[in-house]
Amino acid sequence: VDGCIRDTESIRRMDFPVYSHDVTPAAGTYESPGRVGEPITVGPEDVRIAAGDLLCGDDDGVVCCALSCGKEGDVTQWLEQLVMEAEKIQKREQEVLRHVTEGTPLLSLLGL
Question: Which parts of 1-111 are beta strand (E)?
Answer without folding.
Answer: 4-5, 22-23, 40-42, 47-49, 54-58, 61-65
